[in-house]
Amino acid sequence: PHSYLLVPRLLTPRDPLFSYPALKRGLVRRRNDEERVKQILSSAELMEARKNRDQVQMKTILEEMNTVVYGEGVTPQIREDFLMQHG
Question: Is the dihedral of CA 2, 4, 5, 8 positive or negative?
Fold first, then answer.
């Protein structure tokens, strides 16, 4: 539908490329995930766990962070293995 546009071109925030609903949903989800990560990193629970060197609580917080960053059930190792295999 946008075949009249030059390729490659300099992308701007008003480029038609950014009008696709799936892309907009993805951008909103990304922004929400980034906010959630900021909340986790600045949480009182994390500060308390660091202060007390509470490894159990730190592990729980790390798992919560991994869920936000990688998705439900995906660990950093699973993600790395996928990237090694598929690039």
Answer: positive
